[in-house]
Each structure stands twice: as C-alpha cells, then as structure tokens.
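Problem: given the chain below (785 residues), write out its structure.
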Amino acid sequence: MARRSLKASTVGIEKAKKAFKIREWTQEYLASEIGLETRQPIWKFFTGKPIERQNFMEICFRLGLDWQDIAELPNPRLLTENNQEWEDCQNVESLVQMLRSRLSDKIKSQCATTRLLDIDQPIQLEEIYVSTNILNNITSRRWLDILDLQGLITEEFDCFNFNQLYQERASAIQAVITYPKLMVLGKPGSGKTTFLQYIAMQCNQGKLLSDRIPIFIRLKNFAEDARETGNYSLLNYLSQELADCGASDQEIQTLLVNGRILILLDGLDEIPEEDNAKIISKIRSLAENYYKNKLIITCRIGYQQYHFEEFSDVEIADFDYSQIEAFVQNWFVNVSKNSIEKGKALACQFMQKLQFLENQQIRELAVRPLLLNLACCVFQARSDFPVRRVEFYKQGLDILLNRWDKVRSIKRDEIYLHLSLAQKLELLSQIAAITFKQGHYFFTQSIVEQYITDYLCNLNIAQTEPEMLQLNSEAVLRLLETHGLLIEQARGIYSFSHIAFQEYLTAKNIITSPNPQILEKKLIDLVSHLTEPRWRKIFLLIAGMLDNPTCLLQLMKQQLDRLVAFDQQLENFFNWLNHKSLSVQSTHKRVAIRAFYLTLELLDDLSLTNDLAFSLGIDLRLTSNLTPDLALDIALQCALHLSVALSNEPTLDRVLALSFALPDRQTLVCNSELQSSLQKLKEQLPTPVQGREKLKEWWNSNGQIWADELRLVIIRCRNIGHQWHFSEQQKEILKQYYTASQLLVDCLNSACKATPTIPESLLATLLLPTPKILMRNSIQQIYEA
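Solution.
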C-alpha cells in the first residue's frame, strides 16, 4: 500500500455498508458531497481497494465512522523486521511522553486560561468551555443562486439560519480525530481560539491524541518574532520549542518524521499583510515535508484567500440551545464569581427571559460566544435584558468592529485604518438602508462593492482611479466580512450576519441627519411603510433612538387616521366602539377600554388572538383588576363563540361547555333583563342524559334559532357581538389599522422610557372615529389661538 493510501478491512467494509444503507445515499451523491469528480474512489472504498488517505478519511467522516475502525491497519509488531525496529518504536513513544511532560507547564501557561471581554480576570478554560460543534458540508450552499436565497424569505423571516437549513452539525473533536490536516473557520468571537486551547490541553493531559506532542503557536506573535529575527522558518520555530525541552536534533527529526507532533496554529487572519505570503509558504512547506504530523489552523471566515493542499475546511457552528444553556450556567457561576446557588438562579432567570418573544433577536445574536458573553454581562448588572435594544446592538457592533481587534492587538489593511469607527458605521448604515428599503436581504458582491465605492468616492482619503477604487472596495468588503458583519452566504452573494444588525443600521441611517428638515422628510418616508410587517422593528428602534420622537409618533398617528377615513361603515364601527367604551364603568384608561372592545368585537372577523395584549400595552392595570363589566363581556363573547362552534359540529361536550360559559345568576344580579333572558336560553339546552341523538334532533330543528336568539340578547343587553358584515377589503384595512395601532402603542412605550414628556393626546385620540378626531383637533387649535 502506498504511504498516502488506505483501504478498508473486511470488517470495516461491512460496517461502512451498513452506515451507507441507513443514509439511503447513492455512490454518486457521496462522491459529490466529498467533492470527487467521479464515484470511482467510492466504489474502490466499498470493494476494499486502496484509495487516497484523505478521501478515505472523508468518506468515513461522512458516514459517521472512525476511520481507524474501518481501515486495514497493520499491527505495529508486524511492521518491524527485527527486534531493533520494535525497540526504536518504543523509544519514540518514551520520547513523546518525556517531552510532553516537559512542555506541560508551557502549554498550561498558553492554554489553561482564557480572557473574556469586559471581564477583569483570566478564566480557567475548564470553567467556561462548552463542547464545540462544526458544520458538515460547508460548501453545500456555495452554489445557491440569489433567487434560491430570496425564496427563503417570508413575512415572518427574522434571521439567516443556514446552520439548520443546509448543514448538519458534528462533533469538532471527532473532526480533529478524523482529519490529519484541519482548517477551522469561524466568525469573530465564535470560539476558534478557545477550541484550539482546549485541544492543546486535552492532548497535554493525555486525553486526546495521547501519542502526540502539542505545540501551540499564535501566528501573530510568531510573525512579530520572525520580523525581528528575519527568520520565518516555522520548522526552526518548532525545533527550538522542542530543543528548549532537551530534545536533540536527531530526536526532533525522529519525532517529525514519525508524525508525533500536534501543531496548533491560531489566527491565520491575524498575520500582518506584509508577513502573510512568507508565513503561508512556510506552513505549506511544513505540511508537505512532514505530512504525518497533525496540523490544525484557525482563521476567520472571509479572510482565507489561500487553500492548503490536503487540509479539510470546517466551520465552527453557532451555539444551539443546550450549548447556550451550558455557557450561561458556567458564566454566572464561575465567571461572575456568584455563589453556586445565586449563579444557578441567575442562569435560570437568564434562560427563561431569553425565551420571551421580545428577546428573540438577543437570543439569535447570542449563538456566538462573544455576543453571549455581552448578554451575560448586561444581564448580571440588572437581572434582566435592556428594554432599549438599541444599546445592546450598539455595543455588539462596537465589539465586532473595534474592541475585539483592539483586545487582540490586530491591525487590518491600510485603507481600512483610515476609516474611523463612525465612518465604518456610516458605510454599513448606507448599505443596510439601501438594501433593506429595496427588500433585499441578500445582495451580490458587485452591488455591495459599488455601494462601498460610492462611499469611498466621497472621502478625501480614497484614491479615485477606477482600478484603485475597485481594489479598495474589495479590501473593505473582505474586512467587513472578517469582522463578521457581512457574510458570503453563497458564491458571490452576501448578507448581513444577522438581520438585527441590518435593521439597527437602517434605523441609524434614517435618524442620523444634522438637518431637521431632512430628518422630517426621512420620517415621512418611513411612515409610508407603517402597515408593512418587516418595518415594525425599524419603527421601534427609531422610537427608542430619537432624542425627541414626538414628530415620528404624530406622523404615525396621522397615517393611522388616513387608513380608516372616508369609509362610512368603518366610521359606524368606530362610533360604536367609542359609545361602548363610554358606557362601561371602569377606572382604566378610556383608550385601553376601546382597545379591549376592538379586540373582543373583531376576534372572529380578523382572526385575532384573545389575549388582551393590545389593551395591556396601554394600561397594565388590566392584568390584575378586570372590572365586572369587562369580565361579563368576555364571558358572553366566549359563549357566543361556542354557539358558533356548536353550529358547525353539535356535540354533547360543546353543549356542556356552552352551558358552563354562560354567566351564572350571581354574576348577573345587577342586570335582571340579561339574567332572565340567559336563564330561559339555558333551560332550552338539551341535557347530557338525553343523549347524542336527542341533541342532534334538537339542534337541527331549534339550534340555529337558539344561537341567533343568544346573539340578539347579548346585543340588546350588552351592545356587543354585532355582525358587521365587513367586506374583505375592509377586513384587510382593519387588520392593518389594528396592527399599526399596536405598533404606535409599542413605540410610545419605548419612547416614553427615554422621553417621559410624550404628549398623552396621541393616546387619547387613538381608536376614535376620524371626524371626532378632526373635531377635537379643531377645538384644540381654536383654544390655542
């Protein structure tokens, strides 16, 4: 067998065939997943013929098998031709153990602790580390078209979750065991360095790859040392590490030739540009000349321009729920130095509140350890997440664009160094605003480079020659990708790494204007999108970002009034709504009562959820103090709803439910007419003892008359339960009005937390008939005059 070939054993072939059968793949499909042009290597694999070592390992990994269990590996004793060779093998093993022991303290010094942003002290790696996963088939989405990606978008679209859509997750440790050469890619703060430190510590303790000596090298530090000495030889650097532990030149050569070194190279993207080519050349030379050694390199996604031969590329997967939970538990107990009891309690609160709907975007950003650490820091300070999300997004962007590189002392390309943080944010805000307004969550490389070019042309620092502008635009795009804010989702197709950043930057672009007239014009344009669901978060963000959001709120209210103006039937409905709210005995805000009855009355027409969320957004007292009038009307509306369901399918269970839903005499003691009418209707209902057939007979002859009578009683006595017979167009307008009114209330709440002087008149005139609003405004204008 050739030194770079492997073949499957008889037992291994049977195991592989079983795994292959379970997956229901074809040989052609498996070949395409591995990147082979033909299925011949797959056929050779299953027939026990030798194939290239890398392909053999890749096939086993795809099948979820350990290649060493499948391969036909000779017994070390049979490899030796005499006792001397076996003795030499034993000597190598002893040498490995001796040198690993001597290197142990240095590995601990390099890898036993880690630093988290905004945490004063180093943290023991074992106290914070969470098992890492990688993504299989990271090239599987490379050939998607932009139309394929746009097809993923719905009205509820809220994140770019390709991890679940296109890729399977696998254990990162298994990938380390499987692949002899590994390029570990990841977004900034995804845990690449921490993972490499963990591998080094596990090997150092003999728990992983115990036949190897781990050597951990930060490539940025190596580049600095190499520049000072003029010696860029990675081989010499490794040899010196071993020589410092007492290894002779012959022993070092023996270890390298026998593949006994685990070489861990951290931060390929952190190498200064001027050193890049030299160091890459030395890595390639080392990997080729001493191919038996295991190499693992980490690098940010978007930076790797050079692909090493025989290296397998894998990508660090975002945290799933269980990993977030494990990290949070470790953080609140070990990092924040709480007592175990308090730490666990805070971790539990964190996870519970993370599931709240209003925290959805924090939850989706927290899949990256760097941003999850930020969320933990914020939560530790107040035992809650910030009400104003803008602060969280602002800090997250600052970390990704600025602070994370500063902490790690990383310098980027010259063109980018001339851009201040404010200019970087301005550029990203322009890209975000243009693409979001167009409804484009995905955009081609040429388009985004043109946006960058247009921006650079307006800066004095930019060279205006077309070729230089193109090169600079490509460099800026690559670095924005390196920062983890723009991601190449498919070949030549980009998006923001998370829609929360695109939305925040879009909002920032709208409000960032020194001219009040330009700002007002932008807000007027914004309000034209009031009824579009995807703009909801933009409104909320801007309401929280503006120093004085009154203008925005007034424009929203005017747009709301226009929606239902000049429609007589809608006018009648809002007149009823106002009259009904005034007839109710309650200490709650009158607008909250209107919101309550709007929801109650349109429950079926608009398929609304009966959860009082709209009313509660206006007056939280409704949660603990529902007045008798409101409680009675909810019960009656429920009974009316059950009578409609009974019409569709009369069953004994539904009759019983309807009977229990009708208010009892004690509840109706102050309304004798309603009490008497409902009692008569109750008495007409069949009893369970009469049986199913009697029920059907009764319903067929009297049921619809009974249901109509119930509705008439409720309308006469309580003035609810009307059948408005809205057209489909009117229903659509009412849905838009309802949703937009909720949005206005949410914006008011968001703005009032920052600006308590928001005029109450905005709320006072909400959900009133348009002429009444116009009349009130006219009276107000006369009064002010």
